TrEMBL record, chain A:
UniProt entry tagged with the keyword Transmembrane helix: yes
Listed transmembrane segments: 55-76, 91-112
Region of interest (Disordered), residue spans: 1-46
Keyword tags: Membrane, Transmembrane, Transmembrane helix
Protein name, as recorded: DUF485 domain-containing protein
Compositionally biased spans, kind Basic and acidic residues: 1-19, 37-46
Highest taxon of source: Bacteria
UniProtKB/TrEMBL annotation, chain B:
Keyword terms: Cell membrane, Membrane, Symport, Transmembrane, Transmembrane helix, Transport
Gene Ontology CC entries for this record: plasma membrane
Sequence similarity: Belongs to the sodium:solute symporter (SSF) (TC 2.A.21) family.
Annotated source species: Streptomyces filipinensis
Protein name per the record: Cation acetate symporter
């Protein structure tokens, strides 16, 4: 299990007394102190692998988002569909007003599944199944 | 519009906001409660709250207004407003939550271990927050002006007061409940009327609007002009006038408006016949704001509109992640996975809302083209029920829409004030706890309220776009590079924030101040994201590479904290915590 060596996540607030630059504790001080940064001296190869996989998933999803949507303005301008014609055909309205939203949701759902699987895999064969 | 119904609608929303906020106050005790609701907000409630907070006056009123004026091109705005959350999900959501920071400056300091970067980020948060608050308060002024006839600045002031009370009293916990409640209110306020509007439109034989630069009155329409106005009439038209036209008083008399310019006096009612072309307002040379935004496509606009479209896309796609009121909500998630799930739900909730908005724009083009004449295109959503349905039903639906609009600017203004006050309270005023937070709340809302009273008319959806552009050119590089690139150094981050964010902020300020009103320069300044985002990224990467020895010593630890899943804090079956 790769997570036990990770410092506990702490609340970070801006307080004047920070000298080391380390995030200080919150006003309420309800949480435990954070371990020293030196507890993690070198980049963990497992972390590198996880980051690479997460980044790949994010970039694939970005491509799915950016390619169709990024080309659409040019396409609409080049095809004689929209332009400044007085009547905007219904296809344009559907393409811009309806179609993007299910697509965005689908890309998001795909990415979350992929990202969670990456994290689970990284946790060294200890699958943390969620209901 | 029947004023009583509208006032009742708005009052109900304000009362409900204060009430739900007060309920939250009873449970918010410690500072941690106050800022992030002690991080016990479930993903679904949090998703409602994020959506409720995000759907601002720009989404509720502005998009429909711009669609009315400029057509299908404006649908890029809601697409971008939603897609911004997808980009946020992909690159930022879980790591940002795992960083454990409250605000963007907190993230900057935690990641880069530098007070200087923190301070620059703080200034930018305040700047973006104020830019975003400005159109909210203007939307408030517009809504209350239509409902009550009160001057625009008064509406902004009322909303500012309600926000101050709600935020200073309850903090984030109460805001969470308020926001979640307001998402559903806003969705209902668009969904119910649109059903009736579509039925009325069908009963009217479902006419299709034209999107050229010469809109037509589909029905005989009475236009009330509050402020003096100069129009250009291109085809002679016979109208009925009460008030003054070209300096001559008229009392319900029939006049022929010949081709050319006509001056309409204040408080004049002009009745146009069905089928007449809508005369368009002349752009007065002394106007303080680039009012060309609310005009239909002109040849000049058309030439630059592809650039403007990409400017909008880039700003909204990349800017969402850096909006202070959006980011602060991610700290209320219990862990990184919950942050992701929240964001996916938000994508669905926003999509449902934005499916409705264009319908109002299209119907507005048909039944309220006179808004182009008076320049109040942002009012399209508000006036449609009365125009299309009329009677008591129209009044009731109008009140519902007005209440929804009120929820829109209230919720966003609450969230923004909250986060701007948080940054002011922690970084500008010495951090002494809740008392200072309340003081900071006053400062956070007072400045944009004053500015809203001074600055001229900007269509709210495009004014919001300016805040997105600044955010996209400063915080997007900081977050993306900070989370995914070990090589980021404090000098690099500072340079990127200053050059990217600073140049966008300058361009945007020049636009608001009305520096360049048309032509290529105006286009470049009004949609700066196309050039300022690359500037921000390039500055961060190049300066970081040049100062490689300044990579923060704790980078490896921070990266592990950002990317590795949390050890499961709650007892959960399974061998996850060995």
């Amino acid at each position: 299990m790769g997570a036990e060596s990770v410092p506990r996540r702490e609340v970070v607030t801006g307080r004047e007394e920070t000298v080391t630059g380390r995030p200080p504790r919150p006003f309420g001080g309800t949480t435990a102190a954070r371990p020293e940064p030196s507890s993690h001296p070198r980049p963990d190869p497992r972390l590198r692998r996880l980051m690479r996989r997460q980044l790949r998933a994010a970039l694939i999803a970005t491509a799915l988002l950016a390619l169709p949507l990024g080309l659409l303005p040019v396409l609409l301008r080049t095809l004689p569909l929209a332009g400044a014609a007085p009547r905007v055909p219904p296809a344009v309205w559907l393409l811009l007003g309806v179609a993007p939203y299910p697509a965005l949701l689908a890309i998001g759902a795909w990415y979350v599944r992929r990202a969670e699987r990456n994290e689970t895999d990284t946790a060294a064969g200890a699958p943390a199944e969620r209901p | 519009m029947n004023q009583t119904y509208g006032i009742v609608g708005v009052t109900a929303v304000i009362l409900a906001t204060v009430l739900v906020g007060a309920l939250g106050l009873r449970v918010s005790r410690t500072t941690s409660d106050f800022y992030v609701a002690s991080r016990t907000v479930a993903p679904h409630l949090n998703a409602f709250a994020v959506s409720g907070e995000y759907l601002s006056a720009a989404s509720f009123l502005g998009v429909a207004g711009l669609v009315l004026a400029q057509g299908a091109d404006m649908l890029w705005l809601p697409i971008g407003y939603t897609a911004g959350f997808l980009v946020l999900l992909l690159f930022v959501a879980a790591p940002l939550r795992r960083s454990g920071a409250y605000t963007l400056p907190d993230f900057a300091e935690a990641r880069l271990e530098s007070r200087a970067v923190r301070r620059v980020a703080g200034v930018l948060v305040v700047g973006i927050g104020w830019l975003y608050l400005l159109p909210q308060l203007r939307g408030a002024g517009l809504t209350l002006r239509l409902l009550t006839g009160a001057p625009g600045w008064l509406g902004g002031l009322v909303v500012a007061a309600v926000v101050t009370v709600a935020v200073a009293a309850g903090g984030m916990r109460s805001v969470t409940f308020v926001q979640a409640f307001q998402y559903w209110l806003k969705l209902t306020a668009l969904l119910v009327p649109v059903v009736f509007l579509l039925l009325a439109w069908r009963a009217d034989h479902a006419p299709a609007p034209a999107w050229d630069d010469r809109p037509v009155f589909h029905r005989a329409t009475e236009v009330r002009v509050d402020r003096p106005l100069t129009l250009t009439v291109r085809e002679p038209v016979r109208v009925t006038v009460s008030g003054t036209v070209d300096g001559r008083p008229a009392h319900g008399t029939s006049l022929r408006l010949g081709e050319g310019r006509h001056r309409i006096g204040a408080d004049t009612t002009v009745r146009f016949p069905a089928g007449a072309h809508v005369p368009l307002p002349d752009r007065a040379p002394d106007r303080t704001a680039p009012s060309s935004w609310a005009e239909p496509l002109s040849p000049d606009r058309e030439r630059h509109s592809l650039y403007a479209t990409y400017g909008r896309i880039l700003a909204t796609f990349l800017g969402t992640m850096g909006l202070p009121h959006v980011v602060v909500r991610f700290y209320t998630n219990p862990d990184g996975r919950a942050a992701r799930r929240t964001t996916v739900s938000v994508l669905g909730l926003l999509g449902a809302f934005y499916l409705l908005v264009p319908l109002y724009g299209v119907l507005g083009r048909l039944y309220a083209p006179d808004l182009l004449l008076t320049g109040d295109t942002d009012a399209a959503v508000l006036v449609l029920p009365q125009r299309l349905i009329g009677g008591v039903a129209g009044d009731l639906l109008g009140a519902l829409v007005a209440g929804g609009a009120c929820a829109a600017f209230l919720s966003t203004a609450c969230g923004l004030t909250m986060s701007v006050a948080g940054v002011l309270g922690q970084d500008v005023l010495p951090g002494l706890g809740i008392r200072h937070f309340r003081l900071a709340t006053l400062a956070a809302i007072a400045v944009p309220a004053a500015a809203a009273a001074v600055v001229g008319d900007l269509p709210v959806a495009d004014a919001v776009g300016l805040a997105f552009a600044v955010s996209a050119s400063s915080f997007c590089p900081l977050l993306v590079l900070g989370i995914w690139w070990r090589g980021l150094t404090p000098p690099g981050a500072t340079a990127g924030l200053l050059l990217g964010g600073g140049s966008a902020l300058t361009a945007v300020t020049a636009t608001i101040a009305g520096g360049a009103r048309s032509g290529r320069l105006h286009t470049l300044l009004a949609w700066p994201a196309v050039w300022s985002v690359p500037v921000g990224f390039a500055a961060m990467v190049l300066i970081s590479l040049a100062t490689r020895d300044r990579v923060p010593p704790g980078t490896a630890t921070t990266m592990a904290r950002l990317h590795l899943p949390e050890p499961t804090p709650t007892p959960r079956p399974g061998p996850a915590t060995t």
